[in-house]
Known about the structure:
By secondary structure, the protein is mainly α. The protein contains 13 helices and no strands.
Amino acid sequence: MLQSKARIQMILSMIIFGTIGAFVKHIHLPSAEIALWRAVAAFLMLTAAAAASGKLEHIRSFKGRIRMLFGSGAALAFNWILLFEAYRYTSVAVSTLCYYFAPTLIVILSVAIFREKLKVKQAVCFAASTAGLILVIGVSGGGSNDTVGALYGLGAAVCYAGVVFFNKLLGDIDGLVRTWLQFGAAMVIMVPYVVFTCGFAIGGIDPKGAALLLVVGVVHTGITYCMYFAALSGLRGQQAAILSYIDPMVAILVSFFVLGENITVPQIAGGAMIIGFAFLNEVNTQDKLESRK
């Protein structure tokens, strides 16, 4: 019964995460400012969730790891900024497909940084996913802007891999508390970044944009992260990893059917290779990535 509830929570979380691109595309603010307000809303909501669950005392476990915490917060901040910027240049589908190259990057970086052994299956999945990425970027239907957007999506994937590695270095700490503190660190980092790059434009946002921004911060981030962590506590790592691939599937459907964005056949083929081989690599793998977009 508990596992069934956790499965439903995970599926709902992934569906909501998969729709974020449709909202961000219609918020007329710089990507960095959207990411900042998203972090603010999430931090406030996760503060309430951590306090209600009595987990604030876990903060002590971060003593001596402030640098890694801020490194993780920076990676999370630029992960969001680059992904939102990708939406500006290309379709949500292409952005998401490039972003989901992250699991493949993590495998290779684990070999390079943590000296983990590269298995034949992982090598094959890496090669096939890379071929898929080249196909998605190389045949972009929207010209140079589409290619720029794809590269932003790939940059977001690199930052996401950075979040995962910092989490490994931070050790076995409660996921909700760790993410809450990462959001706090991301806010601290993004405030001066926004001030010195794009500046604050929130005062000129229209009512529709304000409503969409509120949904992104409260629903897509605050509520959904709480639901996501509740689901993780009731699922095995492999179950959660497999269900996480609902996210890109929903994003692609939203891109095509809701936003009416063009997706070419080669891009679909490349995307299938990226997601398919990343999924294959997850099978029988117990390590679960605990930071989402």
